[in-house]
């Protein structure tokens, strides 16, 4: 068990009690992640008897897990303001492990608002970053892009958006392996003066940061799937609207396809021929492949797995976290910001725009 | 020709020079609309020789058209501020016909910003309405809903959103034939305090208007396709983001389906069996069926047809306009607002929310 805390290991803390079928799905997810990443060690927080019973099913996993018993856990309907006052939950303890330097990242499939609140409280925002954001990987026609903020900040100013661009750029480099990610601000028109003032301010700041950021300007949502940008930056309200519109439309189309196939005798005959193609399509759009929304901008990585995902989906969230830890994502953001005074740049930009 | 101006006729003015293939597509669209609606008469503005040459192809249409020559027309790249100063364009003249009471609605497939600017300038906003909005019909799993604002107002306060709800409600009644449309405010959560302040204010105002508005609260974008609301109200920025995300995702999925079918030998064999089902799906999602975004809140109807649509799409936009004229849409909004003091309600609501 001592090896868990050895410095050479990549250690991730796990809230075993979050998500619809916890701790079963969580532990199965760890077993999958362990198979592909034997070097990761887990600090697992939750109801010890239940967690142990699940881990016992995977002897190999057992060796890389240290289980910490917690009596309590966060419920889906718990309010963030309430949750941050209870230090005895599995979620709180798991985040605390990152704060104490015992783990480098935390993964939870629990209540999003609660995880965000606890993570902000314990990990604190990186110096020079004003607001953390939620980022996720999404599919486009030829591959993947990242989008932020997906809902952490309902209202954002130009400086917030510029910081999201900086963090999204590093995230895309490490997560997608793109050397010079194309960074764009989401807007309702491509022309310079279209949309909101804060977006224009952000564009001004980004152009002047000399960060070697490959800034390509504004992008409209219907262009995003056409492989036009690798990082899409938005305020949390618009980003969330875009994300959920994509989700709703995908489901609508899939349901409409099923409906029209059902109503067509011929289509039912043709259906067996389509299985291979449909399987491939489903694989591209499989939400499990994009599981693991991350809170970026904090002194430590906090990853939210979808509450309804399965073991494979949870393992993807764990691997996303591991990938960023290996690249020292948090340290990279700090270094990137070392020589930049975003506040000053923001003042200049506001002067230009307004 | 005199019959064109007779009071018993439903008269619509047409900007014949807007859109990608004008005036050809526009006139072919009128011919289609005429076949299904022989009572509509058209005032057609544009290059007379060109327009006449097209109309001559449809002898029946000829009888219900009056052509007015204009030397100039609005280009796609023209700025609204520039366009409103030129009174000699086909678009300006067509809108002016509504202002002068010669027509009850105008349809143009030209530059959206220009049509909006000219329409606002000439038709003016309905008394008691603070901001006109862009509304359109969209598909959900079982039928159709309406959504506004789709981009006329980048920033909105609570009172604007409440007005959109009132106008959207009447629009859904007349356009979709729904007696008690379910009206919802688009938001990033279903809980009362989620999202932006102006949305909370709007909810307060709507609850207190005693309009017999069937207000169902907040709706998240992924729930919209599930037949949960008939009227979705949003600020113009978020509405436009949602609309374009839906558009982008539909296109992405269609392209991914084609891609995976292409790469599968079996799928190619099965493809002929699928034609019927795919045709049905295409018909449900056919953007031409939803053509005709309308500026609501003005003293007269102004309809923007998609610039790239074909004759069938243009005819749908014309029919949408005719349907609302027949129901006296503009008069209905005025009557609905007669006994309401939205400004006062807004002050009360702001006091409650902030």
Helix content of chain A: 40-55%
The count of strands of chain A amounts to 11
The helix-and-strand class of chain A reads alpha/beta
The coarse overall form of chain A would be: globular
Instruction: Please name the CATH topology of the largest domain in chain A.
Output: Isopropylmalate Dehydrogenase
Overall pLDDT of chain A:
91
The largest sheet of chain A is: 11 strands, mixed
Our Rg estimate of chain A from Cα atoms comes to 21 Å
Q: Tell me the number of structural domains of chain A.
A: 2
Query: Largest interface by residue count?
Result: A-B, 58 and 57 residues
Strand content of chain A: 15-25%
Name of the CATH homologous superfamily of the largest domain in chain A: Isopropylmalate Dehydrogenase
Write up what this structure looks like:
Two copies of one chain form a homodimer. The longest helix of chain A has 27 residues. Chain A is globular, with a radius of gyration of 21 Å. Chain A has an eleven-stranded mixed β-sheet, with helices on both faces. The first copy, chain A, has two domains: 123 residues, Isopropylmalate Dehydrogenase, CATH 3.40.718.10; 184 residues, Isopropylmalate Dehydrogenase. Chain A contains 13 helices and eleven strands. Chain A starts with 9 loop residues before the first strand and ends with a helix. By secondary structure, chain A is an alpha/beta fold. The N terminus of chain A is likely disordered. In chain A, a hairpin with a 4-residue loop joins β10 and β11. At the A-B interface, α9 and α10 of A face α9 and α10 of B.
């Amino acid at each position: 068990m001592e090896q868990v805390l050895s410095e050479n290991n990549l250690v991730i803390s796990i809230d075993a009690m979050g998500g619809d079928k916890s701790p079963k799905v969580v532990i199965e997810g760890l077993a999958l992640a362990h198979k592909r990443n034997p070097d990761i060690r887990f600090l697992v927080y939750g109801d010890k008897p239940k967690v142990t019973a699940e881990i016992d099913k995977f002897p190999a996993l057992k060796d890389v897990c240290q289980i910490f018993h917690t009596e309590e856990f966060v419920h889906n309907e718990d309010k963030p303001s309430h949750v941050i006052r209870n230090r005895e939950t599995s979620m709180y303890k798991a985040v605390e492990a990152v704060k104490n330097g015992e783990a480098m990242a935390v993964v939870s499939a629990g209540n999003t608002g609660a995880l965000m609140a606890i993570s902000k409280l314990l990990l604190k925002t990186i110096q020079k970053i004003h607001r953390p954001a939620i980022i996720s990987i999404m599919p486009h026609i030829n591959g993947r892009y990242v989008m932020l903020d997906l809902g952490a900040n309902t209202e954002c100013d130009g400086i917030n958006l510029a910081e999201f661009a900086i963090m999204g750029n590093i995230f895309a480099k490490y997560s997608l392996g793109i050397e010079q990610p194309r960074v764009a601000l989401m807007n309702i028109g491509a022309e310079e003066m279209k949309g909101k003032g804060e977006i224009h301010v952000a564009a001004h700041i980004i152009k002047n940061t000399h960060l070697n950021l490959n800034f390509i300007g504004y992008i409209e949502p219907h262009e995003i799937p056409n492989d036009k940008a690798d990082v899409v930056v938005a305020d949390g309200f618009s980003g969330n609207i875009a994300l959920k519109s994509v989700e709703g439309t995908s489901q609508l189309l899939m349901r409409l396809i099923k409906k029209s196939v059902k109503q067509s005798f011929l289509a039912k005959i043709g259906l067996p021929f389509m299985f291979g193609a449909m399987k491939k399509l489903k694989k591209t759009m499989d939400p499990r492949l994009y599981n693991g929304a991350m809170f970026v901008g904090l002194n430590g990585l906090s990853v939210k797995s979808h509450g309804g995902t399965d073991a494979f989906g949870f393992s993807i969230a764990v691997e996303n976290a591991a990938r960023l830890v290996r690249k020292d994502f948090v340290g990279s953001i700090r270094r990137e910001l070392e020589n930049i005074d975003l506040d000053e740049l923001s003042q200049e930009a506001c002067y230009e725009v307004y």
